[in-house]
Amino acid sequence: MLLKLMRCLGLAGVLGGGISAPALAGECPPLLNHTFTTLQDGKPMPLCQYAGKVILVVNTASYCGFTSQYDGLEKLHDRLKDRGLVVIGFPSNDFGEQEPGSEKEIAEFCRLTYGVEFPMAGKTLIKGRNAHPFFLKLADITRSTPRWNFHKYLINRDATQVIAFGSFTKPDDKALVARIDEFLGR
């Protein structure tokens, strides 16, 4: 039965990959029922492992005017991860071809330049007909499609609420931090 459930969720073969017990028990919210690869090593990164956490999804790029937001995103993640926040970066070359490098180059840039330790997915299409279904769903729920790099989606703990924040919203923005605190249960 468990193996059948794992196949249905697309999790077969990734036991030991950091999947939380609730996800294995079938408690993964439909919104999070997607698997990406990690930027650093290409291993499966099922979003179900983050069920029960507040998630800040950010489409990123290394050669963008907003790239310095990596610093604030890392600080935000580091400060609030013990309370249940996870920041997940999704490098994308969709806007102005500002993420042209290989995944290895992107990972190295993020680590060496900004000390990024929050989870990063492999390069992802986030707009257009071929956008990843996760991003299509986020845009549909919020009625907000990313117009540029560093667009943010904030997802509550049970993945029933999603709020969009544009690229100009910095990681320390009072409105963003207030919503994060609200979703964390402060």
Automatic annotation (TrEMBL):
GO terms for biological process: cellular response to oxidative stress. Residues 1-25 form the signal peptide. It comes from Azonexus fungiphilus. The active site is at 64. One of its GO terms (molecular function) is peroxidase activity. The lineage of its organism: Bacteria, Pseudomonadati, Pseudomonadota, Betaproteobacteria, Rhodocyclales. Belongs to the glutathione peroxidase family. It holds the Pfam family GSHPx. CDD domains: GSH_Peroxidase. This is Glutathione peroxidase.
